[in-house]
UniProtKB/TrEMBL annotation:
Domain Peptidase M24: 14-242
Keywords: Aminopeptidase, Hydrolase, Metal-binding, Protease
SUPFAM superfamilies attached to this UniProt entry: Creatinase/aminopeptidase (SSF55920)
Residues that bind substrate: H80, H179
Source organism (scientific name): Paraglaciecola algarum
Upper taxonomic lineage: Bacteria, Pseudomonadati, Pseudomonadota, Gammaproteobacteria, Alteromonadales
Gene designation: map
UniProt protein name: Methionine aminopeptidase
Family, as annotated: Belongs to the peptidase M24A family. Methionine aminopeptidase type 1 subfamily.
Cofactor: Co(2+); Zn(2+); Mn(2+); Fe(2+)
The keyword Hydrolase is annotated on this UniProt entry: yes
Cross-referenced Pfam families: Peptidase_M24
Enzyme Commission number(s) from the entry: 3.4.11.18
Amino acid sequence: MSNIHIKSQEEIGLMRESGRLLASVFTALDSYIQVGISTMEINDFVEDYIINTLHSRPASKGQYGYQYVLNSSINEVVCHGVPSVGKKLRERDIINLDITLEKNGYIADSSKMYMIGAVLPIAKKLVDVTYQAMWQGIKVVKPGKTLGDIGHAIQTHAEKNGFSVVRDYCGHGIGREMHEDPQVLHLGKPDTGITLQEGMVFTIEPMINQGSYKTKQKKDGWTVITRDRKLSAQWKHTILVTPSGYEVLTLRDEEA
């Protein structure tokens, strides 16, 4: 626990504002995403919106040498998909848009799945089950529960629906830095791992695969795909541990 930064009330207030602003980015995207648009156009739209409308900083740009403001992960891409002028959305695609935003020195992190047109039934099921699994994990959060409790709830829901949980990537603490302690695994055993305390802030962001949980990284050094080339989905929210439970700092209007 010594490396985990418990947020003060002042810091929580600033993180609420970052989360609120980030949620509004997805509201703007909802009417922008369509067949034929390129992932680079999405990237440029989000960069302009964060900087010029929200007067904030896209926190992913420049982080670890990354050139863009978001990850755009389509179909078999698990995470860290790189925006491209040539990569255009097609009917039946599923895409995860993973975006970070910094305001007043504090970062919020969230991602949302978009289904393009009439997707295949298995794709819709995967997207829906992944969203449900994220919420199964979120609903566990309160002081005294453990990170293992969160992972177990997510894993149980995904696997009972016939899907697998990615092992290689996980959620994380967040605040002034995009990646802080603790690591938040999306599988686990009850009553194991770090015990949650009021004031902890971290992401819950399960990556759930249609087939095997195994992944591999492409030669670009960023893009991670399913090893069997089957579909993958992810949803993400930034979560605060409150005195009696949780608060979703990046909650979107349609979820409220």
